[in-house]
Amino acid sequence: MTHEDIEATKAPLLDHLIELRSRLIKALIALVLAFVVCFAFAGHIFNILLWPYELAAGPQKPLEVIFTAPQEYLITQVKLAFFGAVFIAFPIIAMQIYKFVAPGLYKNEKQAFFPYLIATPVLFLIGAAFVYFIAMPIAMRYFLSMEQIGGAGQAAIRLLPRTSEYLSLITTLIIAFGICFQTPVILTLLARAGFIDSAWLKSKRRYAIVIVFAIAAVLTPPDVISQCVLAVPTILLYEASIFVVRMVEKQRAAEASSTATSSTG
């Protein structure tokens, strides 16, 4: 390779690095702006996140959350602002990634990839909504059932959640459900790449159920109800993925048949 050839290969690489830096800066700016906004309204956001606890406790129980260290609630607000910033800025970050990758894709590859770019945040939002309206109230209702009124020979046991621990619980569940709700996207992409097919997914269904319950046991609080609340929708999504993969296979077969027909004609 001559000196001119080496210099010619350096130029495209430098252009890619400049483009990557530009995309990263835009994504970082979106993240920082979202963080500032979320931190300014962190108290209001935290009160919104307390709604599942309020729903589980009922109107008869006063809502009470504590912090046991002077800086705990401030750190909780910072964590909440960062979590909210990632959540809000994710579409912009994903779009910057797509714009960086898109020039290297063919037109049909762009058309195939774009629906997944939309489906990913939508499915994550559905998973987050499932946590907020269903999973978290069920989990808090279970934890509240462990309270003890107290009396002769019994100590009074009350649930007084710490701000940091409550935020950690609900954000962990949101992330866990958000990731699990990506199952159709991940499996469909693997099917398009030719790594799996619907027959393979059907044959591995039993193993998938065991793996799902194992993951649910790790990601959720240590109670059967929370594990089932995560595992059951994930299994249903796995079944939906088999249906979607079968549709992809039919579409691919139709395209192959059309190509074969046009080539023979």
Structural account:
The relative contact order is 0.09. The protein has 10 helices and no strands. It starts with a helix and ends with a helix. It has helices at 3-40, 42-49, 51-57, 72-101, 107-144, 163-180, 183-192, 198-203, 205-219, 224-264. With 265 residues, it is mainly α. The longest helix is centred in the last third of the chain and has 41 residues, at 224-264. The chain is flat, with a radius of gyration of 24 Å. Residues 5-9 have low confidence and may be disordered.
Write out key terms for the chains shown.
single chain; 265 residues; mainly alpha
Secondary-structure element pattern, one letter each? HHHHHHHHHH
What structural class do helix, strand and pairing data support? mainly alpha
Topology, number of strands? 0
Count of DSSP-assigned helices: 10
Helix fraction bin: over 70%
Largest sheet descriptor: none
Q: What overall geometry do the principal axes of the alpha carbons give?
A: flat
Q: Calculate the terminal CA-CA distance, rounded to whole Å.
A: 45 Å
Furnish the topology, listing elements before pairings.
Elements: H1 3-40, H2 42-49, H3 51-57, H4 72-101, H5 107-144, H6 163-180, H7 183-192, H8 198-203, H9 205-219, H10 224-264
Helix pairs in contact: 1-4, 2-4, 3-5, 4-6, 5-6, 5-10, 7-10, 9-10
Briefly, what is this?
Helix content is 80%, strand content 0%. By secondary structure, it is an all-alpha fold.
